[in-house]
Design goal:
alpha+beta; five-stranded antiparallel β-sheet; two-stranded antiparallel ribbon; 7 strands; 50% helix; flat
Length: 207
């Protein structure tokens, strides 16, 4: 079975260790086959699931859906299009194994975030600091964004700099977290506070 090894960053013929078929007691046709494999190169575990399908006058299990490890990333649709495209390019770099390019693209994404927020200081370091001063990001996200900037500078300007897959994954996760906070969680929290304040005011008026 051909699957993706996220450690080796290649497609491999997985070595099957075992499998398990989950049957629906009410519908015998509804079956899921879980297969546990390992990469023949790095020997890391891989778990996939296949659904029983009827094709060409016979029953067969369909294409495998990889459950573990899974490097699919959720990109919030509320993120502005230009910024979202930069983030998607960062994800594509990571999935193709281009770790240094991933770090550079994450830095570019944060730079674009500053620009969209109308913050264009002389340096990215100053812009990130202004994000914090204006309350757009908190202290924790400021620390993450600053580390992204430093790593991005190193990736872009130091030919000797190297980044592992784990490093680039962390940097990508931090980038996604910063954007999620700004375009989703922060807005949700503000709406939550407004609803709770409205309820509190209504109770106060009824007293």
């Amino acid at each position: 079975m051909i699957v993706d090894c996220h450690i080796c960053k290649i497609k491999i013929e997985g070595t099957e260790i075992s499998n398990y078929i989950l049957e629906d007691s009410f519908d015998p046709i509804n079956k899921l086959k879980y297969t546990f494999l390992k990469c023949p190169k790095c020997e890391k575990p891989i778990l996939v699931v296949q659904r029983l399908e009827f094709d060409f006058m016979q029953f067969t299990y369909g294409d495998p859906n990889q459950l573990y490890p899974n490097d699919d990333f959720y990109v919030n649709p509320t993120i502005p299009e230009n910024l979202r495209n930069a983030l998607l390019e960062s994800i594509q770099c990571y999935k193709s194994g281009a770790d240094t390019a991933t770090v550079i693209m994450c830095r570019r994404t944060i730079e674009g975030f500053c620009s969209i927020k109308k913050i264009n200081e002389r340096t990215l370091a100053k812009s990130i600091e202004k994000l914090k001063d204006n309350g757009i990001i908190n202290e924790q996200l400021f620390e993450w964004a600053n580390e992204l900037r430093i790593s991005g500078n190193e990736a872009a300007h130091n030919i000797e700099a190297t980044f592992s897959s784990v490093d680039s994954k962390d940097i990508l996760d931090f980038t996604i977290a910063i954007l999620d906070f700004s375009y989703s969680f922060k807005e949700k929290f503000e709406n939550f506070k407004k609803r709770r304040n409205a309820v509190a005011n209504q109770i106060q008026r009824q007293k």
